[in-house]
Design brief:
- The protein has one domain.
- 57% of the residues lie in helices and 4% in strands.
- The chain contains four helices and two strands.
- It has a two-stranded antiparallel ribbon.
- A hairpin with an 8-residue loop joins strand 1 and strand 2.
Length: 95
């Protein structure tokens, strides 16, 4: 697979996420979108967090990435959260 084409497939998702036409690295795009989707942050807060990590990206690219990849990453995060959450019954906790 060439370096310019990166596809990420999250488990059972039918359509892999393609970063083909984006100049920024896929790891930075994933981090920005997941920060925005997972935590109650504004676009400018995500921009500040990325700047603290040494990534010089404005809030407009983050907004564009959120629009482009947000629903795909949100469903992946939701599946991850649901797989971690357990249901404890009173008998299991105190016995």
């Amino acid at each position: 697979m060439p370096d310019s084409i990166v596809e990420i497939n999250f488990g059972d998702m039918p359509n892999p996420v393609s970063f083909r036409y984006f100049k920024t690295s896929p790891e930075i795009i994933q981090l920005a979108v997941k920060l925005y989707v997972r935590f109650p942050l504004s676009l400018r807060n995500v921009e500040d967090l990325l700047h603290e990590r040494g990534v010089d990206v404005g809030y407009e690219p983050v907004r564009h990435w959120r629009h482009w990849f947000g629903s795909k990453f949100a469903s992946e995060i939701q599946l991850l959260i649901l797989s971690v959450v357990r249901v404890f019954r009173i008998g299991e906790v105190f016995s």
